[in-house]
Amino acid sequence: QVQLVQSGAEVKKPGASVKVSCKASGYTFTNYHIHWLRQAPGQGPEWLGIINPISGGTTYAQRLQGRVTMTRDTSTTTVYMELSSLRSEDTAVYYCARRYCDGGSCYSDFWGQGTLVSVSS
Amino acid sequence: DIQMTQSPSSLSASVGDRVTITCRASQGISNYLAWFQQKPGKAPKSLIYAASNLQSGVPSKFSGSGSGTDFTLTISSLQPEDFATYYCQQYRSYPVTFGGGTKVEIK
Q1: How many interchain CB pairs under 8 A, A with B?
Q2: How many C-beta neighbours within 10 Å does residue A34 have?
Q3: A61 to chain B: which residues are within 8 Å by CB?
């Protein structure tokens, strides 16, 4: 069965960086792009970007350009999201989600369990 | 960016009620619209994609409709396990954007 298993909770100080992992299993890793999203307390999800697991090509949300980096390791079927220059507003649960395409419709079908990132001095 | 507006932001309903949630896009998105259910402390769960296609394993009491800018999610007979927050999401273009959510509570 499809599984996306994320790394554990992180506590960081302002200005630091965090790297969250998402290990995929139960499907052919290189066949599906992976989205990264986050959800601040009491808010709806916010899209951060997407990575192509074959090429490593990425598209990032403009508001995070320069602070977010997504990478992948095909040997371990793991994708990573690193966010730098952390601020208190980056406190959120971070999710990875698989992009599944049915015909021309590509949507997020499976999500990881989430990783809480807390930023506090 | 495409703005997604959901209404209502919350509603109270009883077991067995028929519930309808609406979502409006700030510009036409064809049928590139998904609906998710989220329970407290859990990741969102996919319910519907392409506006009206039921995700595998999702019960048929959930249905979606619409195209262009106006969409609806309907739960035909609300059950205790359906009390949750529901989000619409457009994936017509990046950045992917979500509605503000509709919290369905027990009356």
Answers
A1: 57
A2: 24
A3: 94-95
Bridge partners of residue B103, in order along the sequence: B10, B85
Confidence at A105, pLDDT banded by 50, 70, 90: confident
pLDDT of the residue at A102? 85
Substitution target from A38, A105, A106, A109 for chain B, most B beta carbons within 10 A = A105
Adjacency order of strands within the sheet including B70-75: B4-7, B19-25, B70-75, B62-67
Q: Which residues touch A1 (CB under 8 Å, ≥6 apart)?
A: A26
A45:B45 CB<8 A? no
Name the residue type at position A92.
A
- Would the CB atoms of B49 and A46 count as touching at under 8 Å? no
Separation CA B58–CA B84 (nearest Å): 15
> DSSP class of residue B93?
S
Q: How far apart are CA B2 and CA A121, in angstroms?
A: 35
**Predicted pLDDT of residue A108:** 93
Task: Please name every residue paired with A119 in a beta bridge, in sequence order, or none if there are none.
Answer: A12
Q: CA-to-CA distance for B100 and B89, rounded, in angstroms?
A: 10
Structure tokens at A105: 């419709």
Cβ neighbours for A21, distance < 8 A, ≥ 6 positions apart: A6, A7, A78, A79, A80
